[in-house]
Known about the structure:
With about 170 residues, the protein is mainly alpha-helical. The chain has a domain at about 15-125. The protein contains 7 helices and no strands. α1 packs antiparallel against α5 (about 100-115), α2 packs across α3 and α5 (about 100-115) runs antiparallel to α6 (about 120-125). The chain is globular and about 40 Å long.
Amino acid sequence: MDTRARKQPVCNICTVRLVETAYRKAPWFRIVREPLRLGMRLMAILYRVNPDDYEVRTPSCYRCMRFNKIALKEKSALFRVLNSAVNPLFDALIERILSPAELRDAEQFAQEAMQGLPDAESSEQNRSTPGMQQERKHAIEHTSQYSTCDTRPSVRPEPVEGLNGQSK
C-alpha cells in the first residue's frame, strides 16, 4: 500500500466536464484539443510525471489532464513557455463554444469535488448542465414546429401485385 502523502490539486473549473461538453457541441474541437493533449501526455512521460502523486476526489477526475499539467508546470520551463502561449487561446476557444451557464456548472462541479462532497459524484452521473437543459428545450421547440402532424399511414397499404399477378 502506498503511504506517501498525496498532493492536493486546486481545481477552479472541471476540465473534464468542459471538454466533454465542447466535444458534444463542436465535434471539430477534438482536432484542436487532441494534439495538445497528446503533446502534454508525451511531455509528462519524458519528465516522469506521476499523476498518482495527486489526490483524486471523484471517479471522473481519473481522466483529468490537470494532474499532468500541474506537475509539468513545476518541472518544465519549456512547458511553462508553451502553456503561457497556448492556454489563453485554448481558454478563449472554450469560452466561445460553451455558454456561460455551462462554464458556471463546471466551476460549481469543481468546487463540490474539491470539498469532497458526495453530491459531486451523483451530480456527475445524474445532473445535466443548465446549458444542456437549454439545448434540450431549444431542440424540442425547434423540432415541434416541424412535427405538427402524424405522417404515419393510418391504414395498412394494399399489397403490390408482382409481374405474375401475385401479391408480394
